[in-house]
Amino acid sequence: MPLAVVASRALQGLHAPAVQVEVHLSGGLPAFCIVGLPEAEVREARERVRSALLNSSLPFPSSRRIVVNLAPADLPKESGRFDLPIALGLLAAQRAFDPARLQAHEFAGELSLSGELRPVRGALPMLCAAREPGTRVLLPLASAREAALADPDAVLGARHLSDVVAYLCGRLESGELRVAAPSPAVAPPAPDLREVRGQAEARRALEVAAAGSHHLLLVGPPGSGKTMLAQRLHGLLPALSREQALQSAAMLSLAGHFDPAAWGRRSLRSPHHASSAAALLGGLGGGVLRPGEISLAHHGVLFLDELPEFERRALEGLREPLESCRVHLARAAQRTELPADFQLVAAMNPCPCGQLGNPARECRCSAQQVARYRARLSGPLLDRIDLRVEVPAQAPAQLLELPPGEPSAAVAARVRAAAELQQRRQGTSNARLEGAQLEGHCGLARAERAWLAGALERLGASARCAHRVLRVARTLADLGGAPTLTREHLAEALQLRRALGGA
Ligand SMILES: [Zn+2]
Questions:
Q1: 458 in helix, strand or coil?
Q2: Could you tell me the distance, in angstroms and rounded to a whole number, from the CA of residue 373 to the centre of ligand 1?
Q3: Span 253-269, mean pLDDT?
Q4: Which regions of 349-419 does DSSP assign to beta strands (E)?
Q5: Number of domains in the chain
Q6: Chain Cα centroid distance, residue 58
Q7: Which domain holds residue 242?
Q8: Ligand 1 centroid to 227 CA: how many Å?
Q9: pLDDT digits (tens, 9 = 90+) for 121-152
Q10: Is 306 in the same domain as 453?
């Protein structure tokens, strides 16, 4: 009985569960059925596979009854990635090559009508999935380069269906299908802090944010330089570890956004405020998982300009990932979660017209308008942003007299030293300190504890807020090379979360 089985993988979140593509040829009325794919995708897959085989001068069993089964049935399956396994199954069932050659191999790839292999999403997660030792994964060339980051010895890449068939027939050696992983990218010149004049407090907040991975909100009128400052956070951050770089690349791979030229760099995402909640947070549509901007910014920076202009659902949806570094996505019976360990830097005007508090311009907003504008950011959301500072307007004449700012390279060196200190001491950034670690590394002497309690009480702040102040104070102490927290650290930490009122 002409039957062939080809191993492949589906995509489920960041997981890549095994899928068996079974191809069966029999007599009876000629037909081409695919079981296990949504109906609309079946038609397209059939056309692509048939054309690719015929246009590559490979046999297509048009006089036979063809049944293709993708098992297990309950996995989300986008059709494109299964084109190559289906085509190879058809060829193996016709004995175009020895079916035993398929063993210890997995395949994925979309076919063009001419038989060229097109990249698939999630090549890197596919390689990270558990495989039998010695298994090789054959992918379209662009996907293979991406997958080679995880395990170059296990990856083969091909441009065309004919090359895959030549390899399975033994006419092409595996060495000819080996691919090299991209090398770490050289960062293009980033905007430099030297270009930002004045704004001492906001610059300090930026450095503290970078050093301790704290979230940051900059509040100021248009033209004050808050966007310029926010755009410069990315350039201050220390390099990613290899593991972080792989996790970040896997997330981009899942979304089909992986760019070999950016491999190893922290991602920087700056979605527009008109972005939907699904675009920002991620979503499940038509059985397909779409990572949102917060997951694409995994281990990187998420810059949200005009923060209150984002839709309410998007803003409230940020609360969970800001706390847990993960996001839960659900739709109907499906649910999944994705990592979203990003650093938030946000900017906003102080009021709808933007001029509130600007001595040179008049604010036209009523008190009620200002209150409504600020209420778009809920207390629990603001509470999760450790650093909130004002970026006042600077008169143009005064601006020209100020010397250029300290360059990013000098600030980045201090940030790197403080970040390395945190990794050595506690294995995580200060912003992620919890429980016993928080108590242990942010301990206060009795007098300082009393002072902080008094200060928080005057501000009407919560106990959770005390922890946030302690984490920032720890970063201030680390930047200053101080082993213990002093009243000065605590006072500055309180000062750096003063914008929009209170603690
Ligand atoms: Zn105003």
A1: helix
A2: 10
A3: 89
A4: 387-390
A5: 3
A6: 41
A7: 193-427
A8: 18
A9: 889 888 887 678 889 999 999 999 999 988 88
A10: no
